[in-house]
Design a protein that fits this description.
The chain is of the alpha/beta class and 174 residues long. It has a 6-stranded parallel β-sheet, sandwiched between helices. Helices cover 37% and strands 21% of the residues. The chain is globular and about 50 Å long. The model has no long low-confidence stretch (mean pLDDT 96). It has a single domain, classed as Alpha/beta knot. It binds S-adenosylmethionine (SAM). S-adenosylmethionine binds next to strand 4 and helix 6.
């Protein structure tokens, strides 16, 4: 069974988080997730960026907005998804990744502002990627790479108008 990954972006704040949330979308798609759910007010600018990205670079990749992380999580769990929350207060990635890799359907939760305790409690795994504070974008990229074991680096995107090949690997000017 092919792996299914949904990213749940917790606590998106319109305006303040626009750029970071957009980058979460870019990383989620490029590193093998099939969908992102952003918890916050619907933002047509972010939706538009993702739509245009998929038109040019291929898909499938979907974006949805929702006001309730709990409802989204419950719905996904009812469909058999395991919840993986990325947080520096979790268990080290290197110690839990083999267990998580056994799950074919996962929802990866990444925060922005302080994440409420319910998210920790509702998650099947709370996973730390180092015990240092850094960024949801970095945490997502590292997690997906470990989950897919590097296979996502060769993912092919359907209906892409642009595909970079060896021809595009320009030699550096000296
Ligand atoms: N200030 C917030 C707090 O106290 O919870 C966290 C802010 S951090 C910039 C945003 C998100 O990045 C976190 O919710 C988490 O998903 C991710 N993150 C940051 N450092 C992490 C780490 N060491 N391991 C896993 N995820 C991390």
């Amino acid at each position: 069974m092919a792996k299914q990954v949904v990213v749940l972006r917790y606590g998106h704040r319109t305006g303040r988080d626009d750029r970071v949330s957009t980058h979460c979308c870019l990383v989620a798609r490029a590193f093998g997730a099939e969908r992102i759910i952003i918890i916050g007010k619907k933002d047509e600018k972010i939706e538009d960026v993702v739509k245009k990205l998929c038109e040019r670079w291929g898909g499938p990749f979907n974006i949805n907005f929702s006001t309730s992380w709990r409802e989204e999580l419950q719905r996904l769990k009812a469909q058999g998804f395991k919840a993986v929350h990325l947080t520096m207060y979790g268990k080290p990635l290197q110690k839990v990744i083999e267990d998580i890799k056994k799950c074919d359907k996962i929802v990866v939760i990444i925060g922005s502002k302080k994440v409420e305790i319910g998210v920790y409690e509702e998650s099947d795994y709370n996973v730390a990627i180092t015990k240092q504070p850094h960024s949801e974008i970095a945490a997502l990229a590292v997690f997906l790479d470990w989950y897919f074991g590097g296979k996502e680096l060769e993912k092919k995107f359907k209906d892409a108008k642009i595909v970079l090949t060896e021809k595009d690997e320009k030699p550096r000017k000296k």
